[in-house]
Amino acid sequence: MSETALILFAHGARDPEWADPMRRVCVAVREQAPRMRVELAFLEFMQPDLRACAEALLADGVERILVLPMFIARGGHLKRDVPLLLEELQQRNPRTRFELAAAIGEAETVVQAMARHALALAGG
């Protein structure tokens, strides 16, 4: 197993089908990086939540946990709540490195992919 684990962190919803695209991304990442531990966690309504997911990885001895928010942009949860949770986990687990990436929707490659998709739909 890799020393690094990736948590794809999504908002969650009451409708279980909402998570289907997130599950597809998780499967695609696992296929492209079969040696990396890749998990999917949710902020609310769905399981596992971020804390439970991180604690399962810690129990398996993962040394680095990278949390990638599957959000279009960074709002209050990513500015306040998630950093506090990761700080708490970091304090309780000093041997593990916790990192919070920027929201995936803020990555230039994702912005350009959305622009290409929008233009393709519009026939441009």
Automatic annotation (TrEMBL):
Keywords: Lyase, Metal-binding. It comes from the Bacteria. Pfam families: CbiX. InterPro entries: CbiX-like (IPR002762), Sirohydro_Cobaltochel/CbiX (IPR050963). GO terms for molecular function: lyase activity; metal ion binding. The keyword Glycoprotein does not apply. CDD domains: CbiX_SirB_N (cd03416). Coiled coil: none annotated. SUPFAM superfamilies: Chelatase (SSF53800). This is CbiX/SirB N-terminal domain-containing protein. It comes from Candidatus Accumulibacter proximus.
